[in-house]
């Protein structure tokens, strides 16, 4: 741990092994040292509100988001019991529940397991039943956000990923990135 003023800073390291799959042994990495002190290795870390695990599964992140959203469903129930109209309930849902479920959705939703997606979609479906109006699914929100992100990257020539968007000779469609793994295929760029 490093001492800075009165605060103690203890760096943690999460080693991401993107070639890991169940049944295969982990590569034992040597310990990381900074200023002759060994950095503690952790299996998961929270960065900018997203839980990242060493095996790059999103179950921990999904469970955290689901728990937060279900806690907020209670307040949606209370507002419904107070006989508020559906537009106000929808506004409350979008501001408190949907914003939690879709935080950094372009990062994790593409490689999320089907069970995790089902868990999150259950919360959306429950909110739709409470409000009494249909709500957009998380997949629809994900696709809209990816499309918007891609549009902003294409319009900004200074963006580091701008070179990945190359038009085909027809001038209407973009070239696809070749992907050998499902993880790359389901990530942000190949879906466009």
Automatic annotation (TrEMBL):
InterPro entries, per the entry: AlkB_hom8_N
Taxonomy, superkingdom: Eukaryota
Domain Alkylated DNA repair protein AlkB homologue 8 N-terminal: 58-99
Pfam families for this protein: ALKBH8_N
The protein's name in its UniProt record: Alkylated DNA repair protein AlkB homologue 8 N-terminal domain-containing protein
């Amino acid at each position: 741990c490093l001492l800075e003023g009165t605060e103690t800073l203890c760096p943690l390291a999460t080693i991401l092994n993107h070639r890991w799959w169940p049944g295969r042994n982990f590569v034992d990495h040597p310990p990381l040292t900074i200023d002759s002190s060994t950095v503690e290795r952790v299996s998961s870390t929270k960065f900018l509100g997203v839980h990242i695990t060493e095996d790059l599964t999103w179950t921990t992140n999904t469970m955290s988001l689901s728990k937060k959203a279900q806690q907020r469903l209670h307040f949606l129930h209370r507002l419904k019991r107070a006989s508020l109209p559906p537009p106000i309930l929808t506004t409350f849902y979008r501001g408190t529940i949907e914003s939690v479920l879709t935080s950094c959705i372009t990062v994790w939703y593409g490689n999320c397991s089907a069970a995790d997606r089902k868990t999150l979609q259950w919360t959306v479906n429950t909110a739709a039943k409470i409000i009494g109006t249909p709500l957009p699914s998380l997949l629809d929100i994900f696709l809209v956000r990816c499309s918007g992100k891609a549009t902003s990257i294409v319009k900004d020539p200074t963006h580091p990923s701008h070179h990945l968007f190359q038009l085909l000779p027809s001038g209407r469609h973009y070239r696809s990135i070749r992907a050998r793994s499902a993880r790359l295929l389901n990530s942000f760029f190949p879906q466009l």
